[in-house]
């Protein structure tokens, strides 16, 4: 069972670790011995930068929560997957350069521009993976430390809510603190008429209460965020 930590191990005594035979590379690298391994894993869990430690061919040995969050997954769910299955390199030449460097035993930092689809909403994201060979220089091929820098995407336009002009004016007056009677007077409606429109909006947007309706109206772009007194967008 995955406990949601970076390496997915159930406890601190090493139970659940992969065996050392068959060329196992401990993702803690030089901190693999003694208590330092646990300190390394605790630190990795707390770092906000998305990080993964991989084998030279891309198999994920360990990923921190910030990396797993990109796919809406727990860290242990990324273990065993390949970076090339998670990320799509935007330029093959960058990947070829890294492959050749690893073949020749060179150690440096190699940026790779990538894109991927977020697990939370399926939107395409872009960023840069910095690949850094790490570990004992005598070990070949080395493990890879992958740090992800998520690119800043242009904010998506706020979705427009389905509100009629009358409903938008009711919401604007409500956002300004007008009572139901005052809204009715301003728009030539009865109190029951105002409540009718508010009730329809509450059902359509699945919210309860006037405060929630107003907040939802701003989120959906029905009300202008830059106007005071409040006004329809």
Describe this structure in words.
The protein is built from eight helices and six strands; from the N terminus they run αββααβαβββαααα. With 233 residues, it is α+β, with helices and mostly antiparallel strands. The protein has two domains: 29-150, PAS domain (Beta-Lactamase, 2-Layer Sandwich); 165-219, Arc Repressor Mutant, subunit A. Helix 5 crosses helix 7 and helix 6 (180-187) crosses helix 7. The protein is elongated.
Compose a concise summary of this entry:
Helix content is 33%, strand content 16%. With 233 residues, the protein is α+β, with helices and mostly antiparallel strands.
How many domain modules? Answer: 2
Computed structural class: alpha+beta
Proportion of beta-strand residues: 15-25%
Question: How many E-type strands?
Answer: 6
Please bin the fraction of helical residues: 25-40%
Strand count, sense and barrel status of the largest sheet are: 6 strands, antiparallel
Distance between the termini: 49 Å
**What is the CATH third-level topology name of the largest domain?**
Beta-Lactamase
Task: Note the run of SSEs as H and E.
Answer: HEEHHEHEEEHHHH
The CATH homologous superfamily of the largest domain is termed PAS domain
Which spans have pLDDT < 50 for at least 5 consecutive residues? 1-5, 9-22, 154-160
Q: Helical region count?
A: 8
CATH class value of the largest domain: Alpha Beta
**C-alpha Rg, in Å?**
27 Å
Question: Could you list some keywords that capture this structure?
Answer:
alpha+beta, Arc Repressor Mutant, subunit A, 2 domains, six-stranded antiparallel beta sheet, elongated
């Amino acid at each position: 069972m995955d406990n949601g930590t970076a390496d997915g191990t159930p406890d601190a005594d090493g139970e659940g670790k992969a065996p050392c035979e068959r060329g196992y590379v401990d993702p803690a690298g030089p901190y693999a011995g003694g208590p330092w391994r646990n300190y390394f894993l605790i630190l990795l869990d707390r770092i906000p930068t998305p990080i993964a430690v991989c084998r030279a061919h891309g198999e994920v040995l360990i990923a921190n929560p910030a990396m797993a969050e990109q796919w809406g997954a727990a860290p242990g769910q990324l273990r065993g997957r390949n970076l090339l299955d998670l990320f799509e390199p935007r330029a093959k030449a960058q990947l070829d350069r890294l492959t050749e460097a690893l073949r020749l035993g060179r150690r440096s930092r190699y940026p790779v521009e990538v894109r991927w689809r977020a697990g939370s909403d399926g939107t395409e994201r872009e960023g840069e993976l910095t690949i850094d060979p790490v570990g004992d220089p005598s070990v070949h091929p080395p493990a890879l430390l992958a740090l992800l820098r998520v690119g800043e995407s242009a904010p998506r336009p706020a979705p427009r809510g389905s509100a009629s002009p009358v409903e938008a004016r009711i919401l604007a007056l409500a956002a300004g603190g007008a009572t139901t009677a005052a809204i009715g007077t301003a728009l030539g409606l009865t109190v029951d008429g105002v409540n009718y429109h508010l009730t329809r909006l509450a059902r359509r947007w699945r919210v309860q209460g006037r405060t929630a309706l107003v907040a939802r109206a701003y989120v959906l772009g029905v009300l202008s965020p830059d106007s005071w007194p409040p006004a329809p967008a």
